[in-house]
Amino acid sequence: MQTTALYTRIAPTPSGYLHPGNGLSFLLTWMIARRAGGRILLRIDDLDRARYRPEYVEDIFETLDWLGIDYDEGPRDRTDFEQNWSQHQRLDLYAAALTQLRNQGQVFACACSRKQIRQRSADGTYPGTCASVGRSLDDESLAWRVYLPERVAPVPWPQWRTVNPPDDVRPLEAFVVKQKNGFPAYQLASLVDDTHFEINFIVRGQDLWESTRAQQYLAQLLGQTHFQRTIFWHHPLLLDEAGRKLSKSKGAGSLRAWRKAGRSPQKLIERAAGLLDS
Q1: pTM score, two decimals?
Q2: What is the pLDDT of residues 110-129, one digit of tens each?
């Protein structure tokens, strides 16, 4: 019986300089793929052009080189990325998925801002405010969210082919698939990209369990059977001294600063190897 070769991806976002948490995830992806004789795609997620900077793209290539990470497919430098690999060259694929969801009656228009959601929901979960309002999907100032009827039962973690599943997870909310600026939201774009490139193994931090769940639900709606067979490996996060995850939004120190200070990536490499061998 022929087995399918492992094909994974490294998917940084050029919205800031990469931090140690990014480095850990990239190293784990690379180590797993190379141990399994698999292939790696470099996919740079640049839909958020408001925070995009050329220097952040350059930082991606410099960081991968510093970490000793190679890959088999994807852009070789910033020019190659802009000309041949940008997500903006796949807008038609995202639009087709959004049209399919609309035609199936799976989305509704939402006018709620993040501030309004926080005011109405103690835990920040979308409370379904616009689900029954009937706003026009043709209103370009509104976001699109996926309906989550009560009859939709949660998919058990074992069926998601996931490594290190959570003990529990909060209920899936009616998440955004189209932003108010007209661009596809992360959950839809990531699913479409992984399906387009035929990725079958995805490494993620434990903070992205809900993304896996949302994207698996989207895959069911869109009939993306390949994605439903994908295996996920959710790894423990790097935490700061206060026990908080390292992230660009929280002001985590950058790997660029490490390089400028002459620091070696060896401890990060050892941390990744230790997680795989534990």
Answers
A1: 0.90
A2: 999 988 988 888 778 898 89
